[in-house]
Design brief:
Chain lengths: 265, 330
């Protein structure tokens, strides 16, 4: 069984560096970690390796420093790793990223199950998974927290809207794994030693035969215009009109003004 | 081709229209009005009659209704197929989808299928002066910063966070422009739903979905005084919630408790009556869009969280307030 996991490198910690000029997260030279939400997908893949002897491939798109994160994935137990890295990919939004990753996936082989995280910490984008699935013309099960492959299909539990759902789907299938799933295991062995041995293959735009119009800034319809700090907490208004009666009238006036009353059944 | 109008994709669960649909419609209506265009709601379901009736009350300019027995539950490929067909046919300027687990998945599929940009998890949006470009506010890095994002492709596809906008109000004017479209289920390989675990009900007085919640705290003094507030709640069409001490005293069942270990509510209006404002309770109601606190102690912490506060005797104020609401009804 062939399993693929998509991972993303995000800056460590909760504070992010922004480049005011480019309005992008500073990714080069920042100590990168595996996007926490993707670690659940990695764990799910490693479990399939434990139980079914599946081969686990990890892919990512990002700066060259992401090689380090991919080596760490191998140290955790993944079998091989590929990185799509090219200046032409810089500034990609999710549409472009999904495109490049789907090209990278196609380049590296055929898979029964593709696993993604369900969001990223640096830009809550749950959409990469389904976008890849659409490009690869395969079905998806999103926000899965439990799943089991069964001959030709996958049986899964997913978080729907206000409910949980039991669904099945023929393979090949893409699943986005929710953070309700099992967390990533502890690494067995010495991290530095294991990472030293880990081989990561890096592909550039040319290797992937991508359409340059579809990646990087050119292929990204969404653009960040500015980034700002949200205003601080609202400050409340005390109604002090002197008497209870006047206070009630004032409150009613405010509610009317805000069109909050006068319409209910 | 001229792209116009604001679309909202209605979100349902087991046939019930979910409140986020009304939130999106409210924002959608505001956006449509700001550029003198129409609001259109796309309703997908097995049998839409009841939901159409419900939606008609809210002054949507158009309802596009698509029915099929396979559409009872959300399924990404069916929904993507329907929207891809409709977008091609009607060319809306903006398509708003709920940023729920299902909506986020749908938005992503649709964006890849039609090669459209997607702005995910918007918390607010407004048109630029050109009356065409939508600027979307998206929180990043755990809400510490907000980015302004625009999208160059049309329709501008956005998923909108739930629980941020107030729900649209019913109007006298009833929408009677319903377009019925017949779109067959997608024939692609897709997931099969076997079982839904949990339940979403349509009860209006359900604490967690109510538009107004009246919260009662120990200021009520004893169990015998509860009907005073319950009547007030009934008068204004609100659900009742209570703080933990009332449950601990055994005056009210646990199902009404609002707080860290009770229900989390986010109504349009939350009346905090005789509630001091322990952190436990605050966590259960701080997402309410408008908080009105009434308490006889000016130092009660609740006033720090309230949009409007009145220091006074609730036994005096509540009956007065109830009278005022009664007047409006007439």
């Amino acid at each position: 069984m062939e399993i693929l996991v998509c991972v993303k490198q995000v800056p460590a910690g909760k504070t992010f560096e922004f480049d005011v000029e480019t309005k992008k997260l500073v990714r080069e030279g920042v100590n990168g970690i595996i996007n926490p939400s993707d670690t659940y997908a990695l764990e799910a893949a490693l479990k399939l390796k434990d139980t079914l002897g599946a081969r686990v491939t990890v892919v990512s798109m990002g700066p060259f420093s992401a090689v380090n994160m991919l080596q760490r994935c191998i140290a955790y137990g993944a079998d091989r790793a590929f990185l799509a890295n090219d200046e032409a990919f810089a500034g990609s939004d999710t549409l472009a990223t999904g495109y490049v990753l789907s090209k990278l996936i196609q380049k590296t082989g055929k898979y029964d199950i593709i696993l993604c995280g369900s969001k990223s910490t640096d830009g809550d984008t749950a959409q990469i998974g389904p976008q890849i699935a659409e490009r690869l013309e395969i079905p998806e099960i999103s926000f899965a927290y439990l799943f089991k492959p069964n001959n030709t299909s996958v049986l899964a539990m997913r978080e729907g809207v206000g409910v949980n759902e039991k669904v099945s789907c023929p393979m090949p299938v893409l699943l986005t794994i929710s953070s309700k799933a099992s967390p990533l295991r502890k690494m067995v062995g010495n991290e530095k030693e294991l990472m030293k041995l880990a081989q990561v293959t890096v592909y550039h735009a040319q290797d992937l035969e991508v359409d340059m119009k579809c990646c990087g800034k050119n292929g990204s319809p969404t653009q960040v215009e500015s980034i700002f700090q949200p205003p601080v907490e609202k400050s409340g208004l005390m109604i002090e009109e002197g008497t209870a009666e006047k206070n009630v009238c004032k409150l009613m006036d405010i509610l009317k003004e805000k069109h909050l009353i006068g319409w209910r059944e | 081709m001229n792209y116009k109008d604001i679309w909202v994709v209605a979100e349902t669960q087991n046939g019930f229209l979910l409140p986020q649909t009304l939130e999106l419609m409210n924002k959608g209506k505001e956006l449509a009005c700001s550029i003198a265009q129409n609001l259109c709601v796309v309703l997908i379901g097995e049998e839409n009659k009841e939901n159409e009736e419900l939606l008609r009350k809210y002054d949507a300019d158009t309802i596009i209704s698509i029915e099929h027995r396979e559409y009872k539950h959300y399924e990404t490929k069916n929904y993507t197929n329907i929207l891809a067909v409709l977008i091609e046919k009607y060319k809306p300027l903006v398509v708003m989808i709920s940023a729920s687990n299902n909506g986020r998945t749908l938005g992503a599929r649709l964006s890849a299928r039609k090669n459209l940009g997607l702005i995910a998890g918007c918390c607010d949006m407004a048109f630029k002066e050109d009356k065409k470009t939508l600027v979307c506010l998206v929180p990043i890095s755990d809400g510490n910063r907000i980015s302004n994002i625009v999208c160059k492709t049309l329709p501008q596809l956005v998923t909108v966070e739930n629980g941020i906008f107030m729900r649209i109000r019913p109007t006298e004017k009833k929408s009677d422009h319903i377009i019925r479209e017949n779109i067959a289920p997608s024939e692609e390989i897709k997931a099969t739903l076997h079982k839904v675990i949990g339940e979403v009900t349509n009860s209006k007085k359900n604490l967690e979905t109510a538009e107004i919640v009246v919260g009662i705290g120990m200021g009520i003094q004893n169990k015998q005084n509860l009907p005073l507030i319950e009547e007030f709640a009934k008068e204004i069409g609100a659900a009742v919630g209570v703080s933990k001490p009332l449950v601990d005293e055994g005056w009210v069942s646990e199902t009404f408790q609002v707080g860290i270990n009770g229900k989390k509510v986010a109504p349009d209006i939350y009346f905090a009556i005789g509630i001091s404002g322990s952190l436990n309770h605050i966590i259960g109601m701080e997402k309410s869009k408008l908080i009105i606190a009434i308490n006889d102690r000016a130092t009660a912490p609740i006033f720090q969280y309230a949009d409007y506060g009145i220091v006074g005797d609730l036994f005096e104020i509540i009956p007065m307030l109830q009278q005022e609401f009664k007047k409006i009804k007439k």
